[in-house]
Amino acid sequence: MEEMRSFGYICPHCGKAVLHQRSVFALSAAAARMECECGQEALEAQTDGVRFRLWVPCGVCGGHQQAACGADAVPHGRGRGPAGPQTQAAVRHSRRAPAERGCGGGGAWAAS
To answer: SS3 for 60?
Structure first.
């Protein structure tokens, strides 16, 4: 049985919970785009073999967050979330700083 990883976020456009799964093999082989069924937002994941990068729609502020971690953290680690203490320093919003919007990086997403 192939090892899978789950990803989730709250779509800032329609407010629905979006859940997707990808195999560890697929995540290591190519970039992944996981769209909401409304078609307005998508989580994107890619690796260069050294770092794993995620671009995640934020259901709190409506912007997008970027998180980066070691290449093995998502496929072989326990998972990551932007509000967690291990990745909070790596998260930055693509529009403005979280404090300017009252968002502490709480966009709902995880990989495990």
So the answer is: coil
